[in-house]
Specification:
This protein has 159 residues and is mainly beta. The chain is built from one helix and nine strands; from the N terminus they run αβββββββββ. The strands form three sheets. Strands 4-3-2-5 form a four-stranded antiparallel β-sheet, with no helix packed on it. A three-stranded antiparallel β-sheet has the order 1-6-7, with no helix packed on it. A two-stranded antiparallel sheet has the order 8-9. The longest helix is centred in the first third of the chain and has 12 residues.
Length: 159
């Protein structure tokens, strides 16, 4: 019988500081179980990449993500991988800000959930950048990016 792998516990002071930071949302002891991604599509949304100038469209409206996307160059499309999806009820379509390196909904389309994230799996909202330390500060939600996006059309074509 093989011995179980033993991982040394961190010093008590480190555990205490992490516990205090987790109370105010600045640390997450279970962070290996979570990913931070941007919600691009809500249930019923039709999300497509990409239009003629490389933008993602949501319900036929292009969104300007230039305020937060990290792309390999200024001419790069918002995604190297094209997609045309409608988000099913109870799900989300999520994308990372570092689009050309993110393991997000596009990366998981071959999985049973087809890349869609069940809303029940959403655990919270990121609000603070803590690392790297030179970027420490509040996270800008960029609500204006989706300001012109209409509600998805119903099955009968109504809004």
């Amino acid at each position: 019988m093989a011995a179980a792998e033993h991982r040394p516990r961190p010093p008590a002071i480190v555990e205490g500081v992490e516990w205090v930071l987790s109370l105010v949302g600045l640390a997450a002891p279970d962070s290996d179980d979570h990913l931070v991604k941007r919600i691009i599509g809500l249930p019923g949304d039709h999300v497509v990449c990409c239009n003629a100038i490389g933008q993602i469209t949501v319900n036929d409206v292009p969104i300007d993500e230039s305020g937060y996307l990290k792309l390999p160059n200024a001419e790069a499309a918002a995604s190297a991988d094209p997609f045309d999806i409608t988000v099913p009820e109870g799900s989300l379509w999520v994308l990372g800000d570092n689009r050309y390196r993110s393991k997000d909904s596009r990366y998981n389309t071959d999985q049973p959930g087809k890349g869609f994230v069940p809303i029940d799996n959403l655990v919270g909202r990121a609000f603070l950048v803590t690392w790297p330390f030179d970027r420490f500060g509040l996270l800008d939600f960029h609500h204006d990016v989706f300001a012109g996006v209409p509600e998805p059309a119903g099955e009968d074509g109504s809004q």
